[in-house]
Design goal:
The two termini are 38 Å apart. This protein has helices at residues 2-54, 58-65, 74-90, 125-132, 178-225, 240-290, 295-322, 334-352, 370-387, 439-449, 487-490, and strands at residues 94-98, 104-107, 139-140, 144-145, 151-161, 164-174, 330-333, 355-360, 365-368, 393-401, 404-411, 453-459, 463-471. The protein folds into 3 domains: 2-179, Beta-Lactamase, CATH 3.30.450; 240-322; 330-490, Histidine kinase-like ATPase, C-terminal domain (Heat Shock Protein 90), CATH 3.30.565.10. It is built from 11 helices and 13 strands.
Length: 496
């Protein structure tokens, strides 16, 4: 949740700013580029027109029209020297003259021979056609990049003799001032990256400010879901999140008061129910003494006594499930815990013909409330024993991976139908006649209270596997001495 919300907030900050900056930068760059390109084109076409005007005398035009493709011609050499003076004075790269068919007449580049077709001007044929057809007095080409990586442009102007097109003068100039435009483009890119970094930093800062109260609120919701309603959520803002937190604290206080009233009511019910049960158990023991000579009636008394024991277990389990009690975590070895489980249930397993097997990772430690976890595991193991067939096997395994500990109980009994797997942890759900339906519900509640979870895998007719995943707290100190348990203490009475 935290990552997704922060990402959304960062994107909400970043996208509009980035789009605005990129749009403005591209618009400015395009406007400047078009302006500089148009300025260069006008300049070059004006120069070409000026050169064309200098050759409009009748004598020059006639000589130009009769110019032979002989590079040694004195007329050609004088014309080329004249163009070179223009080139040096104006500061352009190249000046040339071509026929309407784009064959070279004059060229300041010495390597271009007279009469040679200038294929590099084919890209400008559409502009030159306008001069040939008399649509314009001067034109310029689009900007192009030369072999040296520099941008260039051509300007053209015609020369006529008695209304007939004799030659076309061309001027090639470099766009040197485009270096400034390129520098501006690079500056815009760098500035854009800086803006993006700044926006990301601002987005992360504000998203952290916004999500931190929400994170505390989510943590509190999870804590309250586990039954810890005592600690309120700190109100750090006066915005909508702060108002939500205040409303949540009011709800928490209301639930806490109602929970305390429920605890008092449950204690009262337990007191009112246990007193009559204790009296009935006393009278049953007296009746057993008086009816020792009457086996039939004595059996009736035994049945009453068994039902009273069952009612007492129901009351105890109900109170254990409903009571809110803080856990006292400790760090202890897993092997003694598993040994006690096996020892405590060995008798019941033997009576049913079930074999108990254990496999614990060497040196494995657990953290949590030992007795709560022992009761949880005992409930699960006893359910596995009761679900197994005669000659079945119940395996208890414990191992660790990183900061997670696993306790697994598997059997090869009847299995659980897929539709009922989600129901086994619900209170009062049971498939046994004498089951209270609170054993696995209490186990699930205890595991959740430790911050863990229970996974169930079951196949009807093949068996069931329950795996408990528990976090391991490295900060807890291990017990120096393992507590000693008498045999009577290991005989844990199971429910479910």
């Amino acid at each position: 949740m935290r990552f997704r919300l922060r990402t959304k907030l960062a994107i909400a900050f970043l996208l509009p700013v980035l789009a605005l900056f990129l749009g403005a930068g591209m618009l400015v760059h395009r406007v400047l580029r078009r302006g500089l390109e148009e300025e260069l084109g006008v300049r070059l076409s004006s120069i070409a027109q000026s050169i064309s005007v200098s050759f409009t005398t009748t004598r020059d035009v006639e000589r130009l029209s009769r110019l032979l493709p002989d590079p040694e011609s004195l007329v050609r050499q004088r014309f080329v020297e004249r163009l070179n003076r223009f080139r040096d004075t104006i500061g352009v790269r190249r000046i040339f003259a071509v026929t309407p068919g784009l064959e070279s007449l004059l060229d300041t580049r010495l390597e271009v021979m007279p009469g040679t077709p200038l294929y590099d001007l084919e890209a400008d044929r559409s502009e030159i056609r306008r001069l040939v057809e008399g649509e314009a007095g001067s034109v310029h080409s689009v900007l192009f990049t030369g072999a040296d990586g520099t941008r260039y442009m051509h300007g053209y102007a015609p020369v006529h003799l008695e209304g007939e097109l004799v030659a076309i003068f061309g001027v090639e100039g470099s766009a040197g001032h485009y270096a400034a435009l390129d520098a501006l483009g690079k500056a815009l890119v760098v500035l854009g990256l800086l803006v993006v970094m700044l926006v990301v930093a601002v987005a992360v800062f504000f998203s952290h400010r916004l999500t931190r109260p929400m994170t505390r609120l989510v943590d509190a919701i999870r804590r309250y879901g586990r039954g810890d309603l005592k600690e309120p959520v700190e109100v750090t803002t006066r915005d909508e999140v702060g108002f939500l937190t205040e409303a949540f604290n009011e709800m928490r206080a209301s639930l806490d008061r109602r929970d305390e009233q429920m605890q008092l009511m449950l204690s009262g019910i337990a007191h009112e129910v246990r007193n009559p049960l204790a009296g009935m158990e006393l009278f049953c023991s007296l009746l057993k003494e008086e009816l020792e000579s009457d086996p039939v009636r004595l059996e009736y008394v035994e049945k009453i006594n068994r039902e009273l024991d069952y009612l007492a277990r129901v009351v105890t389990d109900f109170l254990n499930y409903a009571r809110r009690r803080p856990l006292t975590p400790e760090r202890f070895a897993a092997q003694p815990l598993v040994d006690q489980l096996v020892e405590g249930l060995r008798g019941e397993a033997a009576r049913k013909g079930v074999v108990l097997k254990e496999e614990v990772e060497t040196g494995l430690e657990l953290t949590g409330e030992r007795e709560a976890l022992r009761g949880t595991c005992a409930n699960i193991v006893q359910n596995a024993v009761q679900a197994s067939k005669e000659g079945g096997v119940v395996e208890i395994r414990a191992w660790g991976v990183g900061s997670t500990r696993y306790l697994e109980v598997s059997d090869n009994g009847h299995g659980i139908p897929e539709g009922k797997i989600k129901q086994i942890f619900e209170p009062f759900f049971t498939t046994r006649q004498q089951g209270t339906g609170l054993g696995l519900a209490l186990a699930h509640k205890t595991v959740q209270g430790h911050g863990g979870e229970i996974e169930v895998e079951s196949v009807v007719g093949q068996g069931t596997r329950l795996r408990i995943k528990l976090p391991f707290d490295e900060s807890l100190r291990p017990l120096v001495h393992e507590p000693e348990y008498e045999r009577s203490q290991t005989e844990v009475e199971m429910i479910g």
